[in-house]
Amino acid sequence: MKREETVDYHIKATWHAIARMYNSGAGKFGLSVATGYILLNIDSEQGTPSTKIAPLLGLEARSITRSLKNLEEEGYIYKLQDEKDKRFFRIFLTNKGKQARELSRKGVIRFNEAVQTLVSKEQLEQFFAVIQTINQVIEQQSLQLEAEQQEEAYLMLK
Question: Cα separation of 109 and 25, whole Å?
Answer without folding.
Answer: 13
